[in-house]
Design goal:
The complex is a heterodimer of chains A (669) and B (103). Chain A is built from 27 helices and two strands. In chain A, strand 1 and strand 2 form a beta hairpin. The N and C termini of chain A lie far apart (99 Å). Chain B is elongated. Classes of the chains: A mainly alpha (669), B mainly alpha (103). At the A-B interface, helix 27 of A face helix 1 of B.
Chain lengths: 669, 103
């Protein structure tokens, strides 16, 4: 562990260097840019795997850190550093692996885009920033990378910036996440003021270590809230912004305007998980505070809320986006009720199956010539068998179909923890409702896209190239297998994060509680799917498609859901409008008050200057000019001596020398 | 050995000839030659004072003269280069025509 920590900084620096070099490449060097990005990512993956192996139990240390002074001011110094612990290692492997697969996939998906080199440059920049977040041992470094991730997300959502919708979505994402980031920044500054350091672990002096934690938990502010609770809530604001939690979720569905590999990598698998990772990273600070309750409630509400909206969407990527928001809600809830391992396990499994779903959706969109409306698709099961198979696996994993799929085990852990939560059982029921809705909207989507008759207007093409289907198959395998790491019978993941060995105990699998939970999940999912099949089988078979059957039955509810519960409209009517009014007011103040003051001041200054100038002309200039004329006349006489003839000077020197000689001869006498 | 006054007289004559050349000739090359003559008059003085001085075994005069010769050679090179450069520009090396530094 001590040897790999020395090289850990290379993991983000490799893609960063690739991005730097890629930025200098000409637009025509497509192959070079892709190879550069993929090569750097492979390097990062290899190093990440080495780091992962070093943390496997029995590891010699719970974590390794490497800190250095970054900035000295006066007696204080700001430290940065990186760390390696199981939490970071498992995320490093996941992020670099999924990134690599998506880079490979992008070479196919973006093949006809003229800005191919720019795409890979931005993707590498993103990967570098994301990996930087993972290894940061200082909230400051984490925050810097966090903002870099936000920047590259902005650049990639707006990759097709000629599209007004993409440009607007990029701006929306940037501004919305910034609102959360202000909370994070304030929390960070407060933490620095109270704990005196932003380094997480520093041999007992870090802000997540015992002495700082007990000091923070010991002080209270308004209403008996401890400082650690307040700081945790502020940090959670940042996490909620990045991870699309209600009410800051509005940017994530719009972010689907970017290219699909971007949606898969950034807005499904990795970046949006950064918020979850942040909460997991500062978990020691949040542990036992009221902030965890807030995390749970926000997560549970998000999980249901986004799943409900997804039911009424028609854009294949938007459905997946709302599903991502909903799953991020589950992760937050898992962190709140069950701790780091529960939330992180769902993060890892979700990363695989959601990347799979997005890449599958990309393959569908690629085949349908960039058509994204599911009502225009249909019958793709026969045309794209590989994509269909992969997508079906992803869908099952997302719904959490029992036993075989990874999503079941991770969601099961969250719901089990929620069931046992001491504060309230409402999150558990919210989670179950979300599960029902998830299975329902995924069934709807499957029917619309893959079943029924194909729509000739969409001109669906046969299967996508191998460079796109192979990453799909790899991810499909992982979407199934990743679940094996965290079953109740062999809770390897949980034990790994705690740094101990895992024991195999099959009896836990058949305990009463577990069986009840499995049956309950199975019933909920089966009901939802049956419901979906009943509603949509007939609709999907017809071409052109009639109106949504759910819309026919519940028109009001459906319309509300389709309009995303009016969140955008509410924001437009309140914050945006308020902001605009304020800007108008500021503009008026600028013109009328500040502008008038400035104009007055400048007029006064001009008048004063005029007076000074008149005085100058009369009193000073006349005298000064006379002096100058005198000097000029003197100079004219002196210039005659300077003839420019070198020999004349020499003769003068000779004469002067003779005169000196005579003087000396006479002087000696 | 002749007394030093004889060397000094020769040297003074040499210097006067050199100075006259440098001060009166119009051709820049001849002015340069005049300067060389003046330098050599000085060298002759060094040698003369050394030979008739208190420590003729110390070779001080020779050392001075060798240095001075080396410097004179360098100076001649620089001077000639300057003259060639001037000629290229102005198509003349007549010093009375070169008076652009006139005030």
């Amino acid at each position: 562990m001590q040897s790999i920590i020395k090289l850990l900084w290379l993991i983000p620096v490799l893609p960063l260097a690739a991005a730097g070099v890629g930025a200098l490449l000409k637009r025509e060097r497509r192959r070079a840019s892709a190879l550069l990005a993929i090569g750097a990512m492979t390097g990062s993956l290899v190093l990440s795997l080495a780091a992962f192996v070093a943390t496997l139990p029995p590891a010699d240390l719970p974590r390794a850190v490497c800190n250095f002074d970054w900035l000295d001011f006066g007696t204080a110094s700001l430290q940065l550093g990186w760390l390696l612990d199981p939490l970071a290692a498992v995320m490093l492997v996941m992020v670099s692996f999924v990134s690599l697969l998506i880079f490979v996939y992008s070479t196919g998906y973006m093949a006809s885009d003229e800005n191919f080199t720019r795409f890979f440059c931005f993707m590498s920049l993103f990967a570098a920033a994301m990996l930087g977040i993972l290894i940061a041992n200082s909230l400051l470094l984490l925050f810097a990378c966090w903002e870099l991730v936000g920047l590259s997300s902005y650049l990639l959502i707006g990759f097709w910036y000629q599209k007004p919708a993409a440009a607007a979505a990029a701006k929306k994402a940037f501004i919305t996440t910034r609102i959360g980031d202000i909370g994070l920044l304030i929390g960070m500054l407060w933490l620095y003021a109270r704990a005196g350091t932003l380094v997480f672990y520093d041999r007992g002096h870090g802000c997540l270590e015992q002495s700082a934690l007990s000091q923070l938990a010991g002080q209270t502010i308004l209403g008996g809230m401890t400082i650690s609770t307040a700081i945790s809530l502020l940090i959670f604001c940042g996490a909620a912004g990045k991870s699309g939690q209600v009410p800051l979720h509005v940017w994530l569905p719009d972010a689907m305007e970017g290219p699909t590999p971007v949606s898969a990598l950034i807005h499904a698998a990795t970046m949006v998980a950064a918020g979850i990772y942040l909460v997991a990273r500062v978990y020691p600070l949040m542990d036992g505070t009221a902030a965890l309750e807030a995390v749970t409630w926000v997560g549970a509400i998000t999980a249901v809320f986004a799943a409900a909206i997804a039911v009424a969407q028609n854009d294949i990527k938007r459905i997946l986006a709302y599903s991502t928001v909903s799953q991020l809600g589950y992760m937050m809830m898992g962190l709140g009720v069950g701790g780091v391992a529960v939330g992180m396990f769902h993060l890892i499994t979700h990363a695989f199956f959601k990347a799979l779903l997005f890449l599958g959706a990309g393959s569908v969109i690629f085949g349908c010539h960039h058509e994204q409306d599911i009502r225009q698709m249909g019958g793709l099961r026969k045309l794209m068998p590989l994509t269909f198979a992969a997508y079906a696996i992803g869908m099952m994993a997302l719904c959490g179909v029992p036993l075989a799929f990874s999503g079941f085990w991770s969601k099961d852990a969250i719901l089990t923890a929620a069931r046992q939560w001491s504060v309230s059982s409402v999150p558990f029921y919210l989670g179950m409702t979300g599960m029902f809705l998830t299975a329902f909207y995924m069934t709807r989507q499957m029917f619309y896209v893959f079943f029924g008759r194909s729509n000739p207007a969409a001109r669906p093409a046969p299967e996508s190239p191998a460079v796109m289907t192979i990453p799909l198959m790899v991810l499909a395998a992982l979407a199934v297998l990743a679940g094996l790491l965290g079953t109740p019978a062999w809770p390897w993941f949980d034990a790994y994060l705690k740094g101990g060995p895992a024991s195999v105990d099959f009896s836990k699998l058949v305990s009463g509680r577990q069986i009840a939970m499995t049956l309950l999940s199975a019933t909920v999912i089966a009901t939802a799917m049956a419901f979906g099949v009943r509603l949509y089988r007939a609709t999907a078979a017809q071409a052109p498609r009639p109106a949504d059957p759910l819309e026919a039955k519940l028109p009001f509810v459906f319309a509300c859901l389709r309009r995303k519960l009016f969140f955008d409209e509410i924001y437009d009517a309140t914050f945006v409008r308020l902001n605009r009014k304020f800007a108008q007011l500021a503009n008026w103040m600028d013109h009328a008050i500040w502008g008038g003051l400035v104009a007055l001041a400048s007029k006064l200054a001009v008048a004063l200057a005029r007076r000074n100038s008149a005085f100058d002309e009369r009193a000073f200039n006349a005298r000064f000019d006379a002096t100058c004329d005198g000097l000029k006349a003197g100079g004219k006489i002196l210039t005659r001596w300077q003839s420019g003839q070198a020999q004349r000077y020499l003769r003068v020197i000779g004469l002067a020398f003779c005169a000196l000689l005579l003087l000396m001869v006479w002087g000696c006498k | 050995m002749s007394p030093p006054s004889q060397y000094l007289i020769v040297s003074a004559m040499l210097f006067s000839v050199g100075f006259a050349g440098a001060a009166l000739r119009r051709n820049a090359i001849l002015v340069l030659i005049g300067i060389e003559l003046m330098l050599n008059a000085a060298n002759l003085n060094f040698i003369a004072f050394w030979r008739c001085g208190a420590h003729p075994e110390a070779l001080t005069g020779v050392m001075f003269t060798i240095f001075s010769l080396a410097i004179a050679a360098a100076e001649a090179a620089v001077g000639l280069a300057l003259i060639i450069a001037v000629y290229r520009h102005r198509r003349t090396i007549q010093l009375d025509e070169l008076e652009s530094l006139k005030g």
